[in-house]
Amino acid sequence: MNKRFFDRILITGGAGFIGSHIALKLLDKGYSVTVLDNLNSQIHGKDPESTSPLYRSIKDKVQFIHGSVTDKSDWVRALDGQEAIIHLAAETGTGQSMYEIERYSSVNIGGTALMLDILTNTEHCVKKVIVASSRAIYGEGRYKCDIHGEVFPESRKDEDMERGDFECKCPVCGAEVVLMSTTEESKIHPTSVYGISKHTQEQLVMTVCPTIGIAPVAFRYQNVYGAGQSLSNPYTGILSIFSTRIKNGNGINVFEDGHETRDFVYIDDVVDATIAALESSSADGEIFNVGTGVQTDVYTVARTLVRCYGINVPVTISGNYRLGDIRHNFADITKAGNLLGFEPVYDFEKGIKKFSEWVNRQQVMEDKYESSITEMKVKGLYK
User: Could you give the dihedral angle defined by the CA atoms of residues 322, 327, 332 and 333, in that order, rounded to the nearest 10 degrees?
Assistant: First the structure.
């Protein structure tokens, strides 16, 4: 049975999508919550007080520190008296990471290294660190070849995708392969700078924490979505990007052939899994996938959102693609079920209905998608 081992929790990135939801749930459960967040304008807008519902949802409810995980003095302030850390602060977005390498490395890797350096060399009260990893660390995930059995395809080749061949191949013989769910024991081979940085974060926490008497836990989140996510960030979150396009009356460009899939997990399920690990010693030292274990193709996502909003914009399967994107990935969540009692409450239909109802209550945001695509074109990453 889960129980409380801590009272004072620090959430880095706690004004973000996942972090703010966890903060509010912890407050409801009687925890004292501190948030360290830099209120990145890409997520929160230029004036978070008026443009960020995420920040406003926690403002005056938590001890808020406006600072950066790359600043030692901010870490020292934030860590004072804390008993556990939920480390979510990170730059996100697979495509953007491929041309903002220094920023992603500095925040994701450097910020985590700085946290661990302080925990290693100063007095503190921290007993557990939960780090947000990502399904991106798996790259193309796990497949089965009729000849070679379980295989892990490498990044897809530009020349194959250019002629419309988007599926993964056996890395040994080049034959067609069958998609399988990705377990925690699957090969780690990220195909983006973002994925590399998240894997390094995870490795740092899982390696250093046990040596200094801190229990580490890593969560490899799949594609998290739900009420509250940023509708103005054109770099990450396919459901929010599509929603903002539709609400502005703009058509949807579905990349590749529309059959690429993701495992979409609703925010409430992610929050429950994360808090379960905080409150359970059985999670200590473990790495967990968090998803639904179900794959949904991107064309279905686009058509479902069009139906939910009742705005008949064109949905075009374009054959465009981004270098660094994966084809498929969905999680095996058996381990989280066995050790944490985790079982997703929201399937895709239930979750997207709740998400779209929330979007319908929000102000229509400016659609910045085309500018993000232009950036990728200039860098040669969008074809």
Answer: 30
Catalytic residue among 143, 194, 221, 235: 194
- 149-151 vs 223-225, strand pairing mode: unpaired
Say what the alpha-carbon torsion angle 44, 45, 50, 56 is, to the nearest 10 degrees: 0
Q: Which of 132, 126, 286 is nearest to 212 (CA)?
A: 126
In degrees rounded to 5, what are phi and psi of residue 290? -130, 110
In order of start, what are the domains of the chain with their CATH numbers? 8-141+182-378 (3.40.50.720), 142-180 (no CATH)
> How many alpha carbons fall within 13 Å on the CB side of residue 346?
25
pTM over 0.85: yes
pLDDT, tens only, 135-173 = 999 999 899 999 999 999 998 999 999 999 999 999 999
Find, among 26, 21, 78, the residue nearest to 53 by Cα.
Answer: 21
Residue 194 known to be catalytic: yes
How many helices, marked H, and strands, marked E, lie in the chain?
16, 16
pLDDT for the residue 45: 74
Contact 35, 58 (CB under 8 A): yes
Query: Which residues, in sequence order, are CB contacts of 315 under 8 Å at separation 6+?
Result: 251, 252, 254, 299, 302, 303, 306
For residue 60, pLDDT over 90 is answered with: yes
Name residue, tokens 């660190």.
129
Cα atoms in the Cβ-side hemisphere of radius 13 Å centred on 116: 26
The pair of structure tokens assigned to 130 is: 């939960």
Burial state string for 261-275 with b = 16 or more CB within 10 A and e = fewer than 16: bbbbbbbbbbbbbbb
Longest dimension (CA), the chain: 60
Identity of the amino acid at 175 = A
